[in-house]
From TrEMBL:
Belongs to the phosphate/phosphite/phosphonate binding protein family. Coiled coil: none annotated. One of its GO terms (cellular component) is ATP-binding cassette (ABC) transporter complex. Keywords: Signal. CDD domains: PBP2_PhnD_like. One of its GO terms (biological process) is transmembrane transport. This is Phosphate phosphonate ABC transporter periplasmic protein.
Amino acid sequence: MSVGLAGCGKSSQAASKDYTPKKLTVQFVPSANAGTIEAKAKPLEGLLSKQLGIPVKVSVSTDYNTIVEAMGSKKVDVGFLPPDAYVQAHKQYNAKVLLQALRYGYKNDATDLKTNKLVDYYRSQIFIKKNSGIKSIKDLKGKKIAVQDTTSTAGWIYPAVDMLKNGVNINKDGIKTVTVKGHDQGIMSVYNGNTDASFGFQGARTLVLKDTPDVMSKVVPIYTTAKIPNDTITVRGDMSPKWQKKIQAAFKAIAKSKKGHKIISEVYDHEGYVNSKDSNFNIIRKYDKEAKQLDK
């Protein structure tokens, strides 16, 4: 009898692990001006609510660590997480990746001209001011570099690891790092001469093109990294499989609608979504491991 009851307790406990939201909380970190982006993202609430049949709250966070912790403490159900933050959320809280964003690829490393082909990856670049005398990674020794948070794949991990592979340690070699909020701020710090270089995703210059039309000729990339898996839409670890599928389908449907596509395109430069899986991010785990060498 006690064995039977223990078995019952176990199965009901397992069943209770499947979370069914009554109200969905979605959070993201803007890649540019937070106030403007939050206002543009607000209509996503109505679109998601219509697809899912429950109320939806969309909010902006200050950084990805905050979203990861909020998902871990079950205050946030869905996070727009870049690859490294997803890997962290999966490791710490068993968060589940549902989707990867699609964006148009680039024709080459030097320009921000796009192709008409949708891809599930992007790249990071190291930007410098044209005619600054900086021609390669080795010339960055002793310089000042604008970076994002150390969990940022494009704004820290990939370029910092690649610099190390090229014999330059960003934590040593006389380099001063300045952490800025947003890839647009990194570009502007180089443009205004406040830093010698910045890390950012390929295409970051277009974020400031409207206000600084000459940015493409004044700020140029000197290095482009390998492919980085695109941003994810990730859910908390206890989300029920049924709701994982519902959320997957909802975001895909929204991306295909005219109104929805406009929102995701303006907010995150996303053009659509494809199903994703955890093994897609093993390359990130490899880079994370290599990033630990920076402190040695």
